[in-house]
User: Fold this.
Amino acid sequence: MPISSSGHLVIFHALFGEGEDSNLAFTVFLHLATLLSVFIIFHKDVWMLTCEFFSAASDCLKGKPNFKTPERRFLLMVILGSIPAAVVGAALMLLGFDDILENIFVVAAMLIITAALMFFVDKLGKGTYTEKNAPLKAAWVVGLSQAVAIFPGLSRSGSTIFGGLLGGLTKEFAVRFSFILSIPTILGAGLVTLAGTARSDSLEIEPLNWLIGFIAATICGIFAIKFIKVLISSSKFYVFSIYCLLASAVAFLVGFGVIGG
Assistant:
């Protein structure tokens, strides 16, 4: 859902306890579970892009790169769109600014921005670009939107869908590109984080809880993607805007200690 799952997790951690390494690992594990829902819904695109990746790599090694077909163009868009998030994520970690990702007031502020983006999604004009004719600058726009959405409270899916529509993509392709683009980003970030937390002595794994969480996240992810498709086609994304404003108010109340404790 374009309501920032990471932002909600920060709120829940503030309400029910600090996020220990085991909680962080479980959170990342759930994010990886949502990728399975993306694989299920967009399995044809995932398989096609995987095949094209190895085929394109082979062509490049032969000195005959070719990205003129719609499939190769789609692949190139995914590659280009993944770069900004990787750079910003690495920079935050290297500079030691990753603590900001747990700040409840950052979450509250970013949820307001998410609400504004979701409101304007319905207002944007109908785009015409698909993987067949989309300019590569559209991939950069979406990629930059995803990079900024590293901040909790700023929805990744909502920001990238907004960026896609801003770049002139059709609503259908904007949604499809948004979720396909999440695969390398979430997979890469998830594996790096899990590798780090796995070395911690405080990491505790409860197999049954993790299994139930994985299944729940996957099922919810499938329904969420289908729900998003329905709302964007009927121009009712404003419902997410209303929800995010309410969530922002809750985050501010938690941050100031009015609720929770």
User: Anything to note?
Assistant: The chain has a mean pLDDT of 88. The first helix runs from residue 5 to 16.
